[in-house]
Specification:
Elements (H helix, E strand, L loop, with lengths): L12 H13 L1 H9 L2 H10 L10 H4 L7 E4 L6 E5 L14 H11 L11 H13 L10 H12 L5 H6 L5 H17 L2 H9 L11 H9 L8 H10 L3 H4 L6 H17 L5 H9 L23 H12 L9 H10 L3 E4 L3 H14 L10 E4 L6 E5 L3 E2 L13 E2 L13 E2 L5 H10 L8 E3 L14 E2 L2 E2 L6 H4 L1 E3 L1 H6 L3 H11 L1 H10 L7 H9 L13 E2 L1 H12 L3 E3 L4 E5 L13 E3 L3 H11 L19 H5 L6 E6 L6 E6 L4 E6 L14 H16 L12 H4 L26 H9 L1
Length: 739
């Protein structure tokens, strides 16, 4: 058994003094103990408990013990990581092997089931022995008293001084400990006390509680502990740092194991033969270090760190976990939460594979990809060709192959990337909402003079003059269907002028596009009506924002705030009311259906009204094997980025190829096909095994009637390279677009 503080070591002068003082206080009791019958002693203990349950500190009634929080994938089984300041997870007594319960009683408190919380007979015996001396101190603290001490010294609601006082070597503190233990014993059953003790005791190697200790030393849950394993763990609590076979003295650990086994024989928990067999077993450790935080995700899955980081940022905004950011951080690290996230391991694996296929981990360019579930906003995957790691990068490389910057979701120093013509969706939605129809026609020229003032080679008499990248394929009479399918710049700039650029900017914000760059936010706030190039995607965005905006259209106009969790359960088993989809209608369903109908054109499918006649990403149809899909490509100035967003009724996925550290480093048009292929294959994984869902056709009112028959192209309906036949230099194209 353990002495008052449980260390089997030579006594210090202070410890000797404390022993003598306490012996003096209990001197009369020592003499009485020898003469009193057992039952009378127990009665005396109960009557003189010197305290009541009602007077106990709240922490002893409902202990606020710090516990590890677990993050799982959406299957509720795949562990992503854990968060903790103290490595502890509470488990009920029913999930602890009976032999472990027997071992801890035999090791620390043989009379546990006989005394009233404070074993005065055992305490008196230990005091007499300690006063006499002999080199080592004997213990007198029961399991209940040890439990009281452990709770009070770790109670997060108490001050540092109060926690330190829980182990003060004073007579007053010891008497108070006895009072509290006696009150607990009268109010709680023995099994409840044993359960609480096993869940708070320190077993060394950073493991608090039997669940953490069982995993730390043997890589198994406590229900599966063997006799030899249980005896070893029970032996550690007397001096966990000295006896721990991980970083401690293995010989002492084995010696303590033998002591516990002999004690179990003495308490008739096991036979001598069973003890001998267990003593003969070699020390078979399977140390398992629990991951702690986003940089310690499961081995081989450091790509999950970006999702983990996004979840942590989300957590710190939730009032349910505390009034301040600091309180919410502490709740994550000590609240014992079980978090089932929205991360889908299969979709994530495909997204990571595809991102790394386009660009390797050592490439300065990146392909961040995000997948979102329409109708819920749940984030299904976040991938990029980077390791989520704090490790140094070789040769002074910036942010590759290692970084913890939020390249996929944005925030901190990441404003995002230009997404090019994917922003034409917002112009089309604003136009449809204003009463215009899909058949709104315009004879789109190769170059369009606008009302927006501009200087330089790309201007026309002091005004911005955007151009079509591939005039032979894009110029001519266009409606929303083929204007979107062929990505005709001059058609959509004209359409935005008719609607009002401020309406287009507002539409983008309504669908969740966040302007993280200060210049973008200022333009949107103060001069949106003159942001002529907005429809061409010059504002910075992120794959997550873009995927969720398109998911809103896929959900027929229902916007859902992106959320990284399915459920959060507290340590007490109660569900925390966070993480439910937070959705609202931001578009008329028919408007969203009309935009979706036009978005069938870019991906090589046909609209409900047969008006698609060419697209920039027609290979998507083949990858999805004809399954209903929609989407849009985007090329920014000088092809500095290449983007593709695709969606079905079940998933929306966006990928943006860019150099996160150098926007001037153009990725080039050649990578566009790879980005399209990567995103399409992520979509294919996401919908695999799900029932095929068709898009609902828009009304005839929003479709309208074509002004004239559409001229069908004479070339095959194949993916076009918009720069192939463009006679202008890259610089001239950039200047024309930039104005």
């Amino acid at each position: 058994m353990a002495i008052l503080g449980c260390m089997a070591a030579p006594r210090s002068p202070l410890s000797r003094l404390f022993t003598v003082l306490l012996a003096g206080v209990l001197a009369g009791l020592v003499l009485a103990v020898a003469a009193l019958p057992g039952n009378l002693l127990l009665g005396l203990t109960a009557r003189s408990a010197l305290g009541s349950y009602a007077a106990l500190p709240a922490s002893l009634k409902t202990p606020a013990t710090p516990q590890r929080s677990y993050l799982y994938a959406n299957d509720g089984k795949t562990l992503i990581t854990t968060f903790y300041d103290v490595n502890r997870t509470d488990v009920p007594l029913s999930e602890i092997a009976p032999v472990m319960r027997q071992a801890i009683v035999a090791a620390e408190d043989r009379r546990f089931y006989d005394h009233g919380g404070a074993d005065l007979r055992g305490l008196a015996r230990a005091l007499v022995a300690n006063v006499k001396g002999g080199g080592t101190e004997q213990g007198g603290s029961t399991l209940t008293m040890q439990y009281v001490r452990n709770v009070l010294k770790t109670d997060p609601t108490r001050t540092a001084e109060e926690r330190a006082a829980a182990t003060d070597p004073t007579v007053g503190r010891k008497i108070q400990e006895i009072r509290y233990a006696s009150a607990l014993d009268k109010s709680l059953g023995k099994d409840e006390i044993l359960d609480r003790y096993l869940n708070i005791a320190y077993f060394g190697a950073g493991a608090y509680g039997i669940a953490a200790a069982s995993q730390r030393y043997f890589g198994k849950p406590p229900a599966q502990l063997t006799l030899a394993e249980s005896a070893l763990l029970a032996g550690l609590v007397q001096s966990p740092d000295a006896y721990s076979p991980i970083g401690g003295d293995k010989d002492q650990a084995l010696a303590r194991r033998s002591y516990v086994l002999d004690s179990m024989v003495a308490t008739n928990a096991i036979t001598a033969a069973q003890a001998a067999k267990a003593k003969a077993e070699p020390l078979a450790l399977h140390p398992t270090a629990q991951p702690n935080g986003c940089t310690a995700v499961s081995q081989g899955h450091d790509d999950w760190g970006y999702f983990c980081d996004y979840l942590r940022r989300w957590w710190l905004t939730q009032p349910a976990f505390g009034a301040t950011v600091a309180e919410r951080e502490q709740a994550l690290r000590s609240g014992g939460y079980t978090v089932v996230t929205s991360l889908d391991p299969k979709i994530q694996a495909t997204a990571q594979q595809q991102a790394a296929k386009v660009y390797g981990y050592d490439n300065k360019r990146a392909l961040p990809i995000a997948a979102v579930q329409p109708g819920t906003g749940r984030v299904l995957a976040m991938a990029v060709n980077r390791h989520y790691s704090l490790a140094d990068n070789p040769n002074g490389k910036a942010n590759y192959p290692n970084t913890v910057n939020p390249l996929i979701s944005g925030g901190a120093s990441v404003d995002g990337y230009q997404a090019g013509s994917t922003f034409k969706l917002f112009t089309m939605l604003a136009a449809l909402e204003s009463g215009r129809t899909l058949s709104t026609g315009f004879d789109a020229p190769a170059k369009l003079p606008t009302r927006y003032a501009a200087e330089g080679p790309g201007s026309c008499d002091g005004h911005w003059c955007p151009v079509n990248a591939n005039p032979d394929w894009m110029d001519g009479y266009r409606m929303m269907w083929d204007g979107f399918g062929r990505s005709v710049n001059t058609y959509f700039v004209w359409l935005a002028e008719q609607v009002g650029q401020d309406k287009v900017v507002e539409m983008a914000q309504r669908l969740g596009i966040t302007f993280r760059a200060d210049s973008d936010a200022t333009f949107a706030k103060d001069n949106a009506e003159n942001w002529g190039s907005f429809t061409l995607g010059v504002a910075a965005t992120t794959p997550l924002d873009l995927a969720n905006a398109y998911a809103t259209v896929a959900a027929e106009g229902t916007y859902c705030t992106p959320v990284p969790v399915v459920s959060v359960t507290g340590a007490d088993g109660a569900k925390v009311p966070v993480g439910q989809p937070s959705c609202k209608r931001v578009l008329d369903a028919d408007v969203a259906r009309a935009a979706t109908d036009a978005a069938r054109c870019p991906v090589g499918q046909q609209s409900a009204f047969g008006q698609c006649n060419g697209g920039t990403a027609t290979g998507v149809n083949d990858i999805l094997d004809g399954r209903p899909v929609a989407g849009k490509t985007g090329s920014s100035e000088q092809n500095s980025t290449e983007t593709f967003v695709g969606f079905t009724p079940q998933v929306a996925v966006a990928g943006i190829a860019a150099n996160p550290d150098d926007p001037a480093d153009s990725v080039g048009s050649a990578v566009q096909t790879k980005v399209i292929d990567a995103v399409a294959r992520v979509i294919a994984t996401a919908v695999k095994g799900q029932p095929e869902k068709a898009f609902v056709a828009p009304s005839h009112e929003l479709a309208g009637d074509p002004h004239r028959p559409v001229e069908r192209p004479t070339v095959p309906n194949r993916q076009q390279d918009p720069t192939t036949d463009d006679p202008r230099s890259p610089l001239q194209r950039w200047l024309d677009r930039r104005g």
